[in-house]
Amino acid sequence: MSSSAPANSVLLVLSAAQAINAEGAVRRAGITCVLVPVPRILSSQCGVCLRVNLDDCVRVEEILALMGVEITAIHDVTMKPPREETASE
Description:
Distance between the termini: 29 Å
Number of helices: 2
Mean pLDDT: 84
Largest sheet: 4 strands, antiparallel
Low-confidence stretches: none
Number of domains: 1
Strand order of the largest sheet: 2-3-1-4
Radius of gyration: 14 Å
């Protein structure tokens, strides 16, 4: 397990529709934001959440509050890079 400090925050909201609308608002504010599947370790329910840079999290919270989007949870995470596929021999 890596001991590096978290680089991102994931914000969980009530619905995929809210996540999609929030993504657009956050991007329009000039903040990098990505919709990602909710990590299984955080919730067993299917869905999407917003992943933002840890440094942008407070500003994103403010934007979502202005939109009336309820954040159900915020987790600071270190995202693993995608696993590289290897050719079988």
